[in-house]
Design brief:
globular, three-stranded mixed sheet, 11 helices
């Protein structure tokens, strides 16, 4: 069974993270499979819109922590190579020449917020919860930061990157990371309403409109993808430090890390 499934119907590529038993966590194989699927969608004239969702009750748990923990003895260079896989994925998603819609059917943590940030339009189930959880593991949301900060304010990041507090769906919308909040029963209808509107646009005009937004709003000549690649180096450097090692060991041992006193 593939960790990423896709079907095209009516001009819409329905792309699904298909690791429900692993909370749709992003391991290296899933990251590569999703990257390749997005590239196929970009090249397929039959695809007008890409809709991304998760199988089961979870949208995405972020990076696969079991895989990351298995790298605890890897070198900084190996960690950098691993980190850049996610950076490349987010860059491909962010720069896709076709409109992208995140159908966020459940909770999303860490790297999931990078996927959300890199999608053009985001519809979130009202019961879903989110968090930038990285600092509680001794690392930082480095790779996803350019995509999240393209939509949320620096002030909001100052709170949620640092506190790792849980963010509800309504708050996610207030922060600018979601456009619509819908009940579970209305999620598909809300997504369909938006994809129907997108399909009324001319394909080349939609691609040019996406480019226009990037060129005018971003300001900085560096792209988000390039910045994310640079930030991957920061994550790799932290990943091999004792604090991160302690954070991951504590997580898997189901104990509090050494820096917690409560």
């Amino acid at each position: 069974m593939s960790s990423v499934e896709a079907r095209v119907a009516g001009g819409i590529a329905h792309v699904t993270l298909n690791r429900a038993d692993k909370r749709n966590a992003l391991d290296a194989a899933t990251i590569e499979a999703l990257t390749q699927e997005l590239l196929r969608c970009a090249a397929d004239a039959a695809v007008r819109v890409v809709q991304l969702t998760g199988a089961g009750q979870m949208f995405c748990a972020g990076l696969d922590l079991t895989e990351m923990q298995a790298q605890r003895h890897a070198t900084e260079a190996d960690n950098l190579a691993h980190a850049r896989k996610l950076s490349r994925l987010l860059g491909v998603l962010d720069s896709l020449p076709k409109p992208t819609l995140a159908r966020v059917n459940g909770d999303g943590y860490g790297g999931a917020l990078g996927l959300i940030g890199a999608c053009d339009i985001v519809v979130v189930a009202d019961h879903a919860k989110f968090a930038f959880t990285e600092v509680r593991l001794g690392i930082i949301p480095a790779i996803i930061s350019p995509f999240a900060l393209a939509k949320m304010s620096q002030s909001a990041a100052s709170r949620y990157f640092l506190t790792a507090e849980t963010i509800g769906a309504a708050t996610l919308k207030e922060l600018g990371l979601a456009h619509e909040v819908a009940s579970a029963t209305e999620l598909d209808a809300t997504c369909a309403r938006i994809t129907d509107a997108l399909l009324k646009g001319a394909p080349c005009a939609l691609a040019e409109a996406k480019k226009l937004i990037r060129d005018v709003a971003q300001g900085d000549p560096r792209t988000r993808a390039q910045t994310s690649q640079e930030m991957a180096a920061r994550l790799a450097r932290l990943r091999v430090q004792p604090e991160a090692q302690e954070g991951f060991e504590a997580f898997f041992a189901k104990r509090k890390p050494a820096w917690r006193r409560d």
